[in-house]
């Protein structure tokens, strides 16, 4: 089965055409500057080839059409007919409480996604636009929605409830939702496979660390807690996002500097995190270089990030009554040996013992703890696109 995976942003659209059974990726790429002018980067892994085009993309419909044209092109295409695409899997950021698993997209599902827009105003409209564009360009092809929030719907009420008047949850659906669920689900399943044990018997802490970061407690294959909250702003400090902070700070700064709520949210989402602390960059590679050159604020930003992740690892081990494995994934988790070591060091009391040589690796699925470590520490590159394709194939296959 050939599945086209679509991840639509407000002005961009990532895609992969793959066979989830064999895991072969036929082509993948990125549409950028949708609504401005339009640029398509198209890669064909089998040829180790990369193609770039300037294509007008006033809307997502033109972007989807450009993707299809690239896939069908005589020179750099990988299919001879659009009918070879059996299904389309869409990443959808927010499914609210309505979706605890991936679903085939129907009119009822689209209506539910529209209802979730207030919960993810920056993401869901783009995801919905991507779905509608695909339906317009590929009528009749089955579509599946795979939700970032779905995996965390197994959290018990004590994990997701906020200590606010209860009617805010009942009437306004204010609760912890969690995000990166597709990634947490994928790497926890891979961890169980690597350890050769049923996931139902394991307590796993998954650390998705990148420009956006979240940590999850996965007990028996189910998410029981996670660090992101009502929005992806909560949890550890991220590239530009503040993470958890005292809400009283907002009132204090707004009163002192005259910010309105929109300006304050821009600061929290775009100007905070490790960028805010360091004043250097939101890119962890830039921070490491600056820290090596003696920039103390860059070093502080890295330390604050690593400390926040370490605290969550300890908290989630306590919440689950133990831990069998800790997983590092995503851009920073997969490529930054220093961050992995900083997070895992000092956890010997709970059975973690790192292997510095094994940890000196980038983007490779491997065990990075020592042979005698009671808690296994794993590096597992995430593959959200494969997870979306697998879900899509399973649902359409039914």
From TrEMBL:
Keywords: ATP-binding, Cytoplasm, Kinase, Magnesium, Metal-binding, Nucleotide-binding, Transferase
Upper classification of the organism: Bacteria, Bacillati, Bacillota, Clostridia, Eubacteriales
UniProt GO BP: acetate metabolic process; acetyl-CoA biosynthetic process
Described purpose of this protein according to its UniProt entry: Catalyzes the formation of acetyl phosphate from acetate and ATP. Can also catalyze the reverse reaction.
Residues noted as binding Mg(2+) in the record, renumbered to the chain: 7, 384
Stated name of the protein: Acetate kinase
Residues that bind ATP: 14, 208-212, 283-285, 331-335
Cofactor note: Mg(2+). Can also accept Mn(2+).
Organism: Flavonifractor plautii 1_3_50AFAA
Subcellular location: Cytoplasm
Pathway as given in its UniProt record: Metabolic intermediate biosynthesis; acetyl-CoA biosynthesis; acetyl-CoA from acetate: step 1/2
InterPro entries: Ac/propionate_kinase (IPR004372), Aliphatic_acid_kin_short-chain (IPR000890), Aliphatic_acid_kinase_CS (IPR023865), ATPase_NBD (IPR043129)
């Amino acid at each position: 089965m050939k599945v086209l995976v679509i991840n639509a942003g407000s002005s961009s659209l990532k895609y992969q055409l793959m066979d989830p059974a064999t895991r072969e990726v036929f082509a993948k790429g990125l549409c950028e500057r949708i609504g401005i002018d339009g640029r398509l980067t198209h890669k064909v892994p089998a040829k180790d080839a990369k193609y770039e085009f300037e294509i007008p993309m006033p809307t997502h419909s033109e972007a989807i059409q450009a993707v299809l044209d690239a896939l069908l092109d005589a020179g750099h295409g990988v299919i001879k007919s659009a009918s070879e695409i059996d299904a389309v899997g869409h990443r959808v950021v927010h499914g609210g409480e309505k979706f605890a698993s991936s679903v085939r997209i129907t009119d009822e599902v689209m209506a539910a996604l529209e209802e979730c827009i207030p919960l993810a105003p920056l993401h869901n409209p783009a995801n919905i636009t991507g779905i509608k564009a695909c339906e317009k360009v590929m009528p009749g092809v089955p579509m599946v929605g795979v939700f970032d929030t779905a995996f965390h719907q197994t959290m018990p009420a004590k994990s997701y409830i906020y200590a606010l008047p209860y009617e805010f949850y009942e009437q306004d659906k204010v609760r912890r939702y969690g995000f990166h669920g597709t990634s947490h689900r994928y790497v926890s399943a891979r961890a169980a496979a690597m350890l050769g044990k049923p996931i139902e018997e394991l307590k796993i802490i998954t650390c998705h660390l990148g420009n956006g970061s979240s940590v999850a407690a996965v007990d028996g294959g189910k998410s029981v807690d996670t660090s992101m909250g009502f929005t992806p702003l909560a949890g550890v400090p991220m590239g530009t996002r503040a993470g958890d902070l005292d809400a009283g700070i907002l009132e204090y700064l707004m009163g002192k500097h005259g910010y309105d709520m929109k300006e304050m949210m821009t600061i929290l989402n775009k100007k905070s995190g490790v960028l805010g602390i360091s004043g250097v960059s939101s890119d962890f590679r830039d921070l490491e270089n600056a820290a090596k050159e003696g920039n103390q604020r860059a070093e502080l930003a890295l330390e604050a990030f690593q400390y926040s992740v370490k605290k969550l690892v300890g908290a989630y081990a306590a919440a689950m009554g133990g831990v069998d494995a800790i997983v590092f994934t995503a851009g920073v988790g997969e490529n930054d040996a220093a961050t992995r070591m900083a997070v895992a060091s000092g956890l010997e009391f709970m059975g973690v013992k790192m292997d510095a040589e094994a940890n000196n690796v980038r983007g490779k699925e491997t065990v990075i703890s020592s042979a005698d470590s009671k808690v296994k520490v794993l590096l597992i590159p995430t593959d959200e696109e494969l997870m979306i394709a697998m879900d899509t194939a399973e649902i359409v296959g039914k």
